[in-house]
Amino acid sequence: MPSIYVDHAATTPLSPAAFKAISSQLQQLGNPSSLHTHGRATRKVLEDARESIAREVGSLPSEVIFTASGTEANNIALKGLWWSRKAQGKSVVVISAIEHHAILDPAHWLETHEGAEVIHIPVDVHGVIKLDFFKNLIAQRGDEIAVISIMHSNNETGVIQPIQELVSLAGDIPVHTDAVQSFKKVPLSYKDLGVTALTLSAHKVGGPLGIGVLILQRAYEIPALLHGGGQEREIRSGTLNAPSIVAFSAAASEEYPSSDVQRLRDNFISAVHAAIPDAYINGEVSQRLPGIVNITFPGTQSDTLLLLLDNAHVSASTGSACSAGVHEASHVLLAMGHTEATAQSSLRFSFGAASTQADVDFVMSVLPDVIATGRAAHLK
Amino acid sequence: MKLIAAMSGGVDSAVAAARAVEAGHEVIGVHLALAANPQKYRSGARGCCTIEDSHDARRAADVIGIPFYIWDMAEEFHDGVVEDFLAEYSAGRTPNPCLRCNEKIKFAAVLDRARAMGYDGVVTGHYARTQIGPDGKTLHRAVDHSKDQSYVLSVLTIEQINGAIFPLGDTTKVDIRAEAERRGLAVAQKPDSHDICFVPSGDNAGWLRDRLGSEVGPIVDQDGNKIGEHKGAYTYTIGQRKGLGLTVPTADGSPRFVLKIEPVSNTVVVGAREDLAITTMRGERPVWCGPAVGSEVKSGFVQIRAHGAALPCTYSFDGNLLVATLEEPLLGLATGQAMVIYDGDRVVGSATVCETQ
């Protein structure tokens, strides 16, 4: 029985090059902070990896800070930049209404524990942040803003955000962007974007789980969350995870077949439109990542659909957060004007480098029945 | 058969799911999220539906080797069970929420959804048995009478019983724990849950007071003389003796018991022990778990509490109310409680007590 994976935005297979890199590095002895031969050998491959990742993202190697996850990188950036700017009397955090929980929650924490004021930039029905709102905000309260964090592309809808325009409007206010979903999928240059900080995660691009990166301008000396050995510019102490770092670099150096992935995704969308006429695509007219599509199937409930799909050997998701294992209505779709009911009737399908037309065909061989059964179960 | 195993995160439902798999059924595990704002951890035997419980259920499903999902039934549970519980207390009755949960959630919302999704039935860890006989599938007491849960299942219609699988009815609890241990299920020694799952503190009176207020009212004797004051009539139960705080003693110093709760006048009526005695009870909204009861008077047993005794009685149905007449008088029966009729160990049916005399 085939088992079809269409949840590449959650995590995607380890690339063969990354597997090779991590396997061989796991057998190498040496703490990269040690000064002897063994330590220097590990430090050498680690710094090679840092340079290679920096090249891929258009930053300086010295701007790369390794972390244990994208979530950690986001926390360091948001809290660190806020604390350093708070010293200058600025306490407003500006984020968008559609951020991942790895930004929403630290922002909320700053609000409840540190006295920050959090302002959410709304999005339009197409899932794009409202630049007019942002412009007015800068004009009226620019002096009070400590940090701005807007994701480069949304993890649920794939909609790409106008970060470059945002940065030019922001002036000298530091801007962080969570680029976890965008890296390797669409052109992404830290330098060209002009942001202060940017987050990456290895396992979204064929690297291993448990390794992330924060790109941060050298000029910013921000307070650390973890204190210890002083690694990574004293911003992120902890022995560097050399095997995962070299594997991240190996994965990041590979070409991502954007146009192939997009073709598959678009074939899938056409097939869904043909088979399930009332289904609609969220953010359809917006610029989107090639591999992600978020679809609303009116009259269904997403948890039922996921169970039925899983039973039919298809792994998909809602892309939104769970609370105690219960899918909440997506805050992203709600921000785009959905009702609770339609937000709860939506699924995310995401394709990756390893996806094939056979995957699309298989999903389409079961999806119409799943939707029909899901509707019947929902009527009950 | 294709079955959905309702997995609470406890030992019973885990073993029930494992047994259903072993019997050759195609089983998926489903944990019902019933609380809108679940607590992170269980404290001892109190409450359920915490995040920890859902993790335990997931772990058990993984060990058994079945798919696992969480179904959000918080809204259905709130509307069908919690609101009902409050409404019943407000009306001066004493409801049993577990019964309501079986009636409206586990074997209604869940079973309906399961059937719509192409599943044949729901497996639970209830201690009860079903049998196929000349009258179709019937509901029976568990072999382990001390754990028997047929009382709280007595609200199931034949249609619901047909969709229910109870794999534990032939085994004692002690053996179930040992079996869980053998199967490598980490919940083998997890404490049983007691009390009402949505009142995690175990303080029912306090929980009710928070939601229904604590309007002070009179405690009166049977002649209507005020002899004390209460703080919310619904926090009293019929037959209660302690904690009445009465200021006027009886002439002979004998204790007084709660006889009646009158929600409209917010009055609690107390009286002598013998005034609690009843011999006849009538119940409304009857449900038959097998062949319907008619006007012909039959002998059997009636049970009025989840783990109460089976009391010898005669019973009949007058077309409107289920009537049971006891051989021996019974002290203290609140309206709102379920009266469940048994023929030997078979559950005949149940009704909600609305009148006693």
Automatic annotation (TrEMBL), chain A:
The keyword Metal-binding applies. Its cofactor is pyridoxal 5'-phosphate. It comes from the Bacteria. GO terms for molecular function: cysteine desulfurase activity; iron-sulfur cluster binding; metal ion binding. Keywords: Iron, Iron-sulfur, Metal-binding, Pyridoxal phosphate, Transferase. It catalyses: (sulfur carrier)-H + L-cysteine = (sulfur carrier)-SH + L-alanine. Coiled coil: none annotated. The keyword Iron-sulfur applies. Residues 4-361 form the Aminotransferase class V domain. Pfam families: Aminotran_5 (PF00266). InterPro entries: Aminotrans_V_dom (IPR000192), Cysteine_dSase (IPR016454), PyrdxlP-dep_Trfase (IPR015424), PyrdxlP-dep_Trfase_major (IPR015421), PyrdxlP-dep_Trfase_small (IPR015422). PANTHER family: CYSTEINE DESULFURASE, CYSTEINE DESULFURYLASE FAMILY MEMBER. Belongs to the class-V pyridoxal-phosphate-dependent aminotransferase family. NifS/IscS subfamily. This is Cysteine desulfurase. It comes from Actinobacteria bacterium BACL15 MAG-120619-bin91. The lineage of its organism: Bacteria, Bacillati, Actinomycetota, Actinomycetes, Actinomycetes incertae sedis.
UniProtKB/TrEMBL annotation, chain B:
GO terms for cellular component: cytoplasm. It is an enzyme of class 2 (transferase). Keywords: ATP-binding, Cytoplasm, Disulfide bond, Nucleotide-binding, RNA-binding, Transferase, tRNA processing, tRNA-binding. Residues 147-149 are annotated as: Interaction with tRNA. It comes from the Bacteria. It catalyses: S-sulfanyl-L-cysteinyl-[protein] + uridine(34) in tRNA + AH2 + ATP = 2-thiouridine(34) in tRNA + L-cysteinyl-[protein] + A + AMP + diphosphate + H(+). GO terms for molecular function: ATP binding; tRNA binding; tRNA-uridine 2-sulfurtransferase activity. Its main location: cytoplasm. SUPFAM superfamilies: Adenine nucleotide alpha hydrolases-like (SSF52402). Its EC number is 2.8.1.13. It is found in: Cytoplasm. The active site is at residues 101, 197. It holds the Pfam family tRNA_Me_trans_C. ATP binds at residues 6-13, 32, 125. Belongs to the MnmA/TRMU family. Catalyzes the 2-thiolation of uridine at the wobble position (U34) of tRNA, leading to the formation of s(2)U34. This is tRNA-specific 2-thiouridylase MnmA. The gene is mnmA.
